[in-house]
Amino acid sequence: MDQPALLLEDYREQAVVLDMVSPYVIIGMLTGWDDRYLVLNDADIHDLRDTATTRELYVIETRRFGVRITRERVLVKLSEVVAISSLADVLE
Asked: Which one in 16, 17, 59, 65 has a CA-CA gap of 20 to 30 Å to 82?
């Protein structure tokens, strides 16, 4: 297994926060990946342009109240991801 896959393995079956290059934040259960896509189940894709809420506030609220599931399954282009973290690691 290559190094990036080993790093992602730590997040398998956990709720994760994906900070995207675009003004989106995606939160969901990381269930798999390949060299191009991450697979998230029970996910929310939040477009920050649709609200006055900041990225940080949205993530903190999601940590407090849970993921607002809007997608059963989603493939996320790995090249568009800036950062990945466990939702459990979000500090309030």
From this structure: 65
Q: Which of 5, 2, 32, 1 is nearest to 16 (CA)?
A: 32
Give yes or no for a contact between 28 and 62, defined as CB atoms under 8 angstroms apart: no
DSSP state of 36: S
Dihedral of the alpha carbons of 4, 8, 10, 11, in degrees to the nearest 10 = 160
Residue partners of 86: CB distance under 8 A and separation at least 6:
11, 14, 15, 16, 17
Q: What is the pTM of this model?
A: 0.92
| pLDDT tens for each residue of 43-85 | 999 999 998 889 999 999 999 999 999 999 999 999 999 999 9
- Could you give the dihedral angle defined by the CA atoms of residues 33, 47, 69 and 17, in that order, rounded to the nearest 10 degrees? 50
- Among candidate residues 92, 84, 91, the one with its CA nearest the CA of residue 15: 84
